[in-house]
Write a structure and sequence with these properties.
heterodimer; A: alpha/beta; globular; B: about 150 residues; mainly alpha; two-stranded antiparallel ribbon; 2 strands; about 40% helix; about 5% strand; flat; ATP binding (chain B); EC 6.3.5.- (chain B); nucleotide-binding (chain B)
Chain lengths: ~550, ~150
Amino acid sequence: MILTLQTPRPLSRLPRFLPFSTNASITLNQSQPATCTSPPPPHSQILSTRHSLLSRQFSAADLLRSHLNRLNLTEPHLRSFLHLPDPSDLLAQADSLDRRIAAGEDVGPLAGVLVAVKDNICTADMPSTGGSRILEGYRPPFDATAVKRAKELGAIVVGKTNLDEFGMGSTTEGSAFQVTANPWDLSRVPGGSSGGSAAAVSARQCVVSLGSDTGGSVRQPASFCGVVGLKPTYGRVSRFGLMAYASSLDTIGCFGSSVADAGILLHAISGHDRFDATSSNQDVPNFLSHFVSASSFESKPLKGLRVGLIRETIGDGVDAGVISAIHSAASHFEELGCSVNEVSLPSFSLGLPAYYILASSESSSNLSRYDGIRYGNQVYADELDSLYGSSRANGFGSEVKMRILMGTYALSAGYYDAYYKRAQQVRTIIRNSFTEALNQNDILISPAAPSPAYKIGEKKNDPLAMYAGDIMTVNVNLAGLPALVLPCGFVEGGTAGLPIGLQMIGAAFGEEELLRVGHIFEQTLENCRFVPPIIAEDIAS
Amino acid sequence: MGGVGAMVKGASYSYAVFCGSFLRSPRLSFSIHNKKKLLKFRSFSSKSTCSSLQPPDVSRLAKTAQISLTPDEVEEFAPKIQQVIDWFGQLQDVDLQSVEPSIRAETENNLRDNVPETFDHRDAMIGAVPSYEEPYIKVPRVLSMD
């Protein structure tokens, strides 16, 4: 097992990454010893931050400065962020929080928590480009509901992260602006489309982040970057302020370095929103009650849980190392008291073409709003159609153009029945097959991706090869179900191994159960600490 | 315990296998009843996709989508789009009789009251439009279509 060597960090001690430490340099570690000591897995950065802030062990301003220090040192290598605000604005927010804490005022559950936001989610006080030149410099006049709710609960938005343009892509190479690197191996991609948000959490540039997941864009980067990624049920989180890609599939999701952190962020942003007619009226249960210390677990804490391993995800075309990691995860579930069985989902492989038909079609409609007239960058012409044509040609990247054209084709008069309608029928079949499987199992598991992170440039010219990597994730979006990805192991690669994520799929609105089970799985996973080498020395715990 | 798998000898190998298995005709494992229907259907269907569908004409599609592509772009995109559309065609071979299409996953009835209201940030949005002349957004002339 190739791992970084970590020393344990008890919660009550001041974290070493505060500015008081003398070692301010980051070295790119060339070799790591292949031993593992086992420090306790991270419980919750958010909960331990809250404890430390309220007991005055350190201040929000100190916490912010130490994160910004790490961010400034790692960002030239990673390029996770498209926009970083003036640090003095952030410090003003942190100082204000510190004053309120000193005055004994109540502060929200996300007080002092540094949140990065994917750049296709609108933020009023920062540019929101969607990773596209057509919105370069665009500042929305409102916050997305998810951002608004996080800020109301005390979160500090630390910047906007890089993405594939408008969410279309699986590597973040499709950004119009820059390529983000994977903190585990700078020659590899962080995944996509929420690659910047995943890399930022992985490198501890921030505590948690928001991404969007339409076909796996939170879960696959979580797997590639060794962090937790949580896709909620469609309708659990308002899409208001999320730049629409495929409206029947889009969700806003959360990244964290632990299941508890992703869950706490999800709880903060969930719930009905009158500005999103597809947002659900279902109650949001109190997920937080499940994030208890491992010492309080019973000996078989998941006794009786029925886990279904999706047979179609561990066969041909999946890396041997990935399959091995998933089988080990299944054994871990059995140690926790679960019964693990293989389950087959009929028509599993139909989901991929169905997804791409639906997503391209819906995106061709959604992206028609970018016409250079009311907002966005305009290429002037003295005739309207030419203005549209030139502005869009100039503003959109190649992948976006191709998907719009494919969607236009699929929705052309006479072709609707052949493509879009058939894809919707396949959606019904896939929903039904998940419903049946989830009647016989409490959760389903699979890899989050068929391989670890690709090399930068590997998938650039072959659309079908890139789409193929989404096979593990798209069906969950078609069925609208919630899914949690957490790092469960490594394969060889990079300087300290490449992380592999386990995907856990739950019933509709079953995030509470997913988080309860995921937390227990994570807290009992021995010998695995997911801190990438680029920051191993800095974290020193 | 996470596994250290065998070293992947070159990503291209695993992807060739992978693309092959997932991108060829889908593995169809329906119930026995559907299998019989499917076999009957497949014996009459042709190998290629529906012959009434014209292949994508990228220039025409670009005009419909209001994107002015350069001739180089048309040449670059056409084979890739063709490849993906062909791949979409595998849905033609699936027996979908009597399957209802789903618009999306969940369908709660969440309509609000049919009462007009003004969005809080309307003024800011209008203010950001470069060529607004109350109450119109000014645009260049529209030529009549040929």
